[in-house]
Amino acid sequence: MIVLFNVKITDVRMGYPYTRGAWMPNPERFDVFKYCLASTRALDPVVTKYAFYITLAPELAHRQAELEQYIYELFPEEKLQLKWKRNDFGRDWRQNMDELLTDPNELVWLAANDDHIFLDSDLNIIHSAIQTLNNDPDPNALVYYSHWPEQMRMSYHLKGELTSDKNFIKFNWETFDGIMILKAGRLKQYWERDYGDALMFKPDYLGAYHGYNCPSTVYAPTKEIVRHYEGYSHVGKGCDNIVPPLYVPEGFFEKELKVRVGYPDRKDGWINLYSAAEWLYNVSANGADFRWCTEDVPLFWQDHISEFDVNLDQNITQLHQARNASFLSATRVPMKCFDIEFDHNNSAPQDWFTNHLL
Question: Residues 338-347: contacts with CB within 8 Å, 24+ apart?
């Protein structure tokens, strides 16, 4: 699988008015991107090449050497292709994809955003995704790897079906979002048209502005594996206390993370995991960071932890039950997405998620 980033790093934000607690750390986008890259490094056992097309905004241009050094420290040099220019136009994509993508069946982890963080605790879903797409004869089949709460709503709404391995919901849909695993042939065919000087730094614009059509098989994971750094407040305020925005934890880049599991109180300077928490840190300065258990610690954190404190007096059974309830609530949160209003009714059935309940 090829990992392909096509991004511009800038502190000038556009788009939806995402919300987060005023007390939460909110670093420069430069560090958010570094955090995103570090999470992506966890995919390395299944990656054959990393292709980065990066533009730094003028206010960050002086940090190019710093970012380049970080990238070369993070990723194996023999797998790395780095170009300091984002694909902004169709002609850019066409030239670079002709060079990069020589096998139409090669899988591509497409990231046209700088802030979708790989949070899974292992690579089981990723291995399953690769096998699933390789076995699907549809050349346009894809795995939509982020925006999990929305995908669980859409997959049920579109009458999706659970795959035999219970790791995905399979349904038919048309999407061009730049956050998917897709086959190289599909990505290359996007750019066969001449789009002239129209900005095309995201495939998202294909359907919205250029009338491109590409309905296909879509697979949505039955477990959250990636979260948008800014969270999902743009689709529903209920997300703020269920699947909140992220932040770069103190000590991450120094590999000095401190993780506490199973404590009901918050301890500053630590990542506080308490599955039975009423409030998360995003909505209360005293809240837990995540309603997770030990089993949920992200893979890319695991070699960055210097201290790990587990409450030995915790009731494991109760905390697992609370964690499972939180897991399921993320699939049922009221929201409006793709112009559809979803409430607590008509939610995905619990048996879709049995693979991932503790």
Answer: 338/150, 338/154, 340/153, 340/154, 340/157, 342/153, 342/157, 346/156, 346/157, 347/153, 347/156
